[in-house]
Amino acid sequence: xxxxxxKKFAMAYIVDRCVDCKACMVxxxxxxxxxxxDFRTHIDTGIAPAATDRLSMHFLxxxxxxxxxxxxxxxxPTKASHKREDGVVDIDNRKCVGCRYCIPSCPYNARxxxxxxxxxxxxxxxLPRIYDGLMPACVTTCPGKARVFGDINDPESExxxxxxxxxxxxxxxWTLRKDLGTEPNIYYIQK
Amino acid sequence: MExxxxxHWYIAVYLFLAGVGAGSIVVASxxxxxxxxxxxxxxxxxxxxxxxxxxxxxxxLYIDLGQGMYKPWLLLLxxxxxxxxxxxxxxxxxxxxxxxxLYGVYNLGILDWFIKKMGFVKxxxxxxxxxxxxxxxxxxxxxxxxxxxxxxxxxxAIPFWHQTSLPILFIISASSTGISxxxxxxxxxxxxxxxxxKIETTHxxxxxxxxxxxxxxxxxxxQGVPEMKFSALTLxxxxxxxxxxxxxxxxxLVVPAFVFAFVEAGKMHVSGGKLVFFELLVLVGGYFLRYxxxxxxxYTQKFTDYIMIHY
Amino acid sequence: xxxxxxxxxRFIQGTASVGAALASMSSFRxxxxxxxxxxxxxxxxxxxxxxxxxxxxxCGLTAKVVNxxxxxxxxxxxxPSNYGKLCAKGNAGVFQLYDPDRLKxxxxxxxxxxxxxxxxxxxxxxxxxxxxxxxxxxxxxxxETFSIxxxxxxxxxxxxxxxxxxxxxYCIPSYAQCTGSRxxxxxxxxxxxxxxxxxxxxQNSKCMMLLGRNIVEALHVGEMQDFxxxxxxxxxxxxxxxxxxxxxxxxxxxxxxKPGTDSALLLGMIxxxxxxxxxxxxxxxxxxxxxxxxxxxxAGYTVEWASKETEIPQEEIIKAAEKLCEAAPHCYIHPGRxxxxxxxxxxxxxxVACLNMLMGNWEVRGGIYRTIGFKxxxxxMVHFDKPYADRADGAGSEEFPLGPKNLGFAxxxxxxxxxxxxxxxxxxxxxxxxxxxxxxxTEMVKKALENTELLVTCEIYxxxxxxxxxxxxxxxTYLERYDPxxxxxxxxxxxxxxxxxxxxxxxxxGGWEIAKILSGAMGHENEFLDVQExxxxxxxxxxxxxxxxxxxxxxVANENTPYPVExxxxxxxxxxxxxxxxxxSNICEHFSYPPMPSYEENPVPPEGEFRLLFGxxxxxxxxxxxxxxxxxxxxxxxxxxxxxxxxxxxLGIKDGMSVRLVKEGFKSNPCTARVVDYIHPQAVFLPYxxxxxxxxxxxxxGKGARTSDFTSNLTDPISGAAGFHNxxxxxxxx
Lengths: 191, 311, 734
Ligand code: SF4
Ligand code: SF4
Ligand code: SF4
What we know:
CATH topology of chain A: Alpha-Beta Plaits
CATH class of the largest domain in chain C: Alpha Beta
Number of strands of chain A: 10
Shape of chain A: globular
CATH architecture of chain A: 2-Layer Sandwich
Number of domains of chain A: 1
Number of strands of chain C: 28
Order of helices and strands of chain A: EHEEHEEHEEHHEHEE
Structural class of chain C: alpha/beta
Oligomer: heterotrimer
Bound molecules: iron/sulfur cluster
Strand order of the largest sheet of chain A: 8-1-10-9
Largest sheet of chain A: 4 strands, mixed
Number of domains of chain C: 4
Radius of gyration of chain C: 25 Å
CATH architecture of the largest domain in chain C: 3-Layer(aba) Sandwich
Number of helices of chain C: 24
CATH class of chain A: Alpha Beta
């Protein structure tokens, strides 16, 4: 009954709209001052094998999936990595010892080591921003409008609408590595 | 396949040293139970390296830490999450280190004056020399060696590590390298005549077992999910092939296996410098085993591969 | 044989309008001086309005300033250039602002040219030095000995400076090295140029055809947004390119064309469409000129022939033609952007325009919309007498009567400086551009630079050109300066505002302020207005307040429909001599250019060589952003060279290997081979803007190849613009 009260943040990528411009990667880097060559979100470019007669190329964004059963949370010895009420998997920088164990534990290659802070780092769905009434930095900047974000428990949110639209139109919707049972919260939508 | 930001080589060193240390103490404890008198030189040698190597290993772990290195109070937090393999490991390592310290002190007879002076003799001796001590060391030692593999093995994200055979392989390798480590120290510092044939025989079989397990693991990996296959291939033919074939297979396993086989058959006798040399080869192999498994594992499938399959 | 008669009056009107329209292409002609006095850094969070200067699309943005430091840039939601979005480059503007590699003080060369030895100077010292040199050269050779190459929002500061000195030789390279041929070709057909914000209505289009217009990678936010919107709505996208680009990834129909044969493809399609009579008859009959002659003219260009020339199967060509006609008039064939390919690009654009005419897509949804400009009586700042001497480059001369004098031929001017064959050209100014990269031949530019006795650069980075300069003035970046407001036209007409987000991080000044200092030091008495004062006057004329602009950053001033033909039943009209869209160009006829475009064969690379294609990556602009660490991180500083699998195999090149381009013994720095199936075997592709020589761009010095070392340097006979793609290279393992 109270289900509507708890938020559950999630993101969807409308794959057809992503053009691999990497604006999201840089916006995020700026927002979080991510050092070195690291990013909190990435775009994979996939090229269909040469054998097919019709060339095709796909762009798949990815970042932390804010898994409901997150391996990174399980393996974190200090509980710095934790799952919040609102669905966000966050890292408490004050607690992280920097043991790096969570980095290979993540099946989505979402984590990296922040050499400036000496802690593990990853997407936080732009935590303070989203409570300031803004969208995450990557969503805000995405020129292709490929990224949709919101509270999946709120039927009026952008993401709920996008997922409903996808279901109504029978678009393909999937999450990554379902087989691992991590219950990720990032959806891929493709026409 | 994409290379994930994995662990540094420090971690490989840690896995290796913890293995050698724990392995040597386990074997020494077994020998202790069997016939302390006969194997005393080996036990002493193992005591020299046991606890110190594990501690050095932990030091490597420590310098690999991020902010935990300059905010050591955060280390207390290592015990707060019971689901983390690191917590288990910290616990096991702490117990093992303390026990092996006591054991070592007892075997080498150092600090005797201190213990006497403090009047600990009555409590210390019976504990350190007890069978209970031996068995505790065997158990925690095996746990320590096994733990280094469990640490990797619990990560389902990395199929190449996520195999039951990995802890077995690491325990065997730890025992084998532990024997080698102790042998080297024995040859260098405890030169008394000793008849360690049983240990040498055990060592030979351990190496043979390790070879078989490794072959099995790779064969299974080659039939596994794409990442797993890719990891196996990086070892066999890919990026790490040279290290794999030269340092692990040839120098670390095959050459020692041959030599020890000849020794077993009585066709050869190695001792002194030669023995040290071959034992060192085993140690090199042990290090490369950790290093290679660590690095070959951390490849992930590009996520686009998952949609491309549908086309 | 319908030789049409046009009254002389209409004819002259037509010619004049081509020139007038081109004049409006130059970004703006506003004159100001400037001071960048900014208050002490404020504590807490503040916001400042600006437009992005990482490329030239000018996306509106708001800078977030936290405790006196710019932390984040975000698009202005209401700015029609970008509707709240920024690309990777735009987002990386923050890094540029605080980049330790920036030029930090004025510099005067203190050693051989190219030695990289400079001494720091004060502004007064550097200005006095330049003033003295300028006055000497002026005395010796006359004022027209100076030239200026300028690009960017502040370009007119230095252009005016050179005009004040008395020289007509100013060039905006975006004409000769980028859109010149396209705009002339379009203007010959439709009476007005395409313009810097291409008015193709992708978002409503049912079918779009792009020939090498790689919208997704040569990326401008607004244009790309429209494109993605169109794609998402299900438009049929036809993409033609020798290389499978990221735009191709979004296409329904990709055609790998033999490089250099695009005209053949289009002529084949035109022929098919006319033969089958599937063109927009109503439009062609009522609003075009010379169709019958054109029909006859293209009769020989059969699909079969086109297929042979282009190596594209006939069915594909027919399919493209039919898809377009089905969608007509809600379809377009993109006129391209940097159309400096084979030295005959004006006539190529004519073909594109003719195909568009057959679609009748003028000023309707999904076709070519009407750019809604916005004109107002902009304040006047500095008054000076127009220089008398003739331009050295020939723009607007008898040889190139259509060449716009207000933009100039950067390519030709540079050649004349290299050869010193018109009159002595001994002093050069460079503002915001980098001739060593954007000209067709580095060798020629180097020769020109050797001939100059004074080379002054105004820049934010130590570019290759700055590296060889005598005096360098460090400019404040767009986030540290005011600039005169600009008026921009897309589907709406709007005003954009720039204010500094922070005071200059280093000892730098805005272009206008520098021009003012230099003009004063040279002893000119022309008064430059302060930029803020200029803006105040502009706001007054516009009837808006500064507060409004500070809050919104953009003011939409004109919301007339961009589809007047569709929405208001307006009759399509064209400022051509015939008043119609011209298949048969009267202006061409008048100036003895072929009035109708024909197929011109382009040379093919000899055995063992490749045609060098180059273009942009979606996260770099020209040769300006390559040293930006945030952008470099996106490709781990790798410079790819695309080469076809078969060809690579023959050369023993494997994917990921280090390779070099070679031309006449000259070898480039190493690039990383990308061995792929999806590039035509005759071509290799190199991203533009790498291979810097300067030691001042510490992250990328010596990385990758510089295209201008290998490109061709052709001249289009009509527009006078350059042609780069007939450069042939060898590839070898490094
Ligand atoms: S900003 Fe949007 S379109 Fe660009 S790469 Fe990221 S998700 Fe794709
Ligand atoms: S995607 Fe990775 S980092 Fe994010 S919650 Fe899941 S396991 Fe953790
Ligand atoms: S397209 Fe990108 S670089 Fe160009 S103006 Fe817009 S945000 Fe800036």
